[in-house]
Fold:
Amino acid sequence: MIEEPYRWVEAIANRREYIEAQLASGSPIAALGYHDGILFLTLGQTRQKIFEIYDRIAMGAIGHPGDIERLRMGAIELASTEGFTRSATDVSLRRLVHYSLSPVMKSAFEQVYGPPYLARMLFAEVGERPEEDLFLRVEYDGEIATSGATFAQARQDFAVLSGTQQSRELMESFLKTEHGADASLEAALKSALDAWSIGHMSLQTTDAKELPERAAVSKYLQEQLAHTGIEAGILERDKSRAIRYRSLSDKELRPLISD
Amino acid sequence: MEPSLVAFDQNFSGAADDFPALLRRKGLLAPAAIVNSQGGTPHQKSWQPTEATTILAFKFSGGVLVAGDRRATAGNTVVYDRADKVLEIDRHSIMAIAGVPATAWEMARVLEHSFQYFRRTQLQEMSVDGKVRALSKLLRDNFGFVMQGVGVVVPIFATYDSHPKPEARLYFYDAMGAQFEATDYAATGSGSPAVRGILYYENNWRAKPLQKLSEDEAVSIALRALDTAAESDTSTGGVDRGGKIYPLIKIVSREGITTLPESKIAAVFKETVA
Structure:
């Protein structure tokens, strides 16, 4: 029956609805370009969600751990073999996502007898200057969103990922006004934590169209910080070393946000 | 239902597949050559372990010092006088090579990617034992080529181990891949007999053993040893006084790897060797 075209469309729509429901509880991840690099941040996780992919590339993901793992391995394999056969500078996030990950995810999604990837991913590649940073979000159906200037938007120095579209849009509208590429790590950290809180608050309700009050955000953040850990990683802009990724522990970060 | 035509390989257990295996799966690394025992091994008799160079490493108060001369030779000809035979593999590991450069540099490249691939996929740093073993495996895989008279590599591997006890570790290998941990020093290459003699003497009968030396004293001994090796071994460049080409010296310590600037080496050379 799925051979009939309109049944296929229906099956795809059902599948989309199912995946969206599965991803809806995913805790937000924010990636912010700042003066000395790119910061990835999320909160309160039981399993790791931010990963190093290659020298200048990192990834954050929500979804099923098994699917995230397969995609992560695929990305690392591709980047590593490219870096080995050519050079580390030839490994590019744009190519990795556009030519390899996105087609794979799209075909898995549309082959309705096979399992789709239950994952939504956020990639970033650190550039020599903040303007050269690249952020790409890849959806379970292979759809790609970029931080670069498009017909609909100006270039952004950040990208976010969340369980629902509403949550993501609120985080984006917050960061659009609060964050700039010349921020320090401390400033980026604070914006990222606030953005995370806004995104997470939105996941708890269904009708949050407006940004919440400042006081409510910081109260919510304090409550969360009291009993959950921060997971973060940075891609450093420092050209003196080849490998730019470094994970930041909760212990390192707490003093930076104490005031 | 047709199997999915998904483009990239899906490896469900990253631990089972190391980086060289990944390269082989993708056809990017030649499988180890197999010596055919029936068909005769034409070059077997002619194989002589001549690794034309001198590499030395020893532990001193500040970690491990690794030094190598800069000469690359092909038979009697000097091909290159600025060869880099002391290679950084990661933030705390150095591989210094004696042998055929093409194979050695390829090995260093595979090794460098192996460690990073492991860290990225497994989300933890490879242990020192694992790293030492990885190099051993590459050497053994290469032994087919060695038996055919091409591609012999005899490296030294120096690293800093943070677990369980923070200390510098030093290993040397034979061409088949056996690894030996050196307590104080190691040397490899055609000029190494002379160097080994000097280091043994310095370690046992001088005022203080190698492990107690300061950085300047260690650099001085490394330069003297390489100069001595070059005296009788044509394949070792030693110090080119006219061309001002100095050996490459790197130090592995707890903080990572430091490459000594040429000016510093030149100063020590002028003061204590020349």
In short: Chain A has a mean pLDDT of 92.
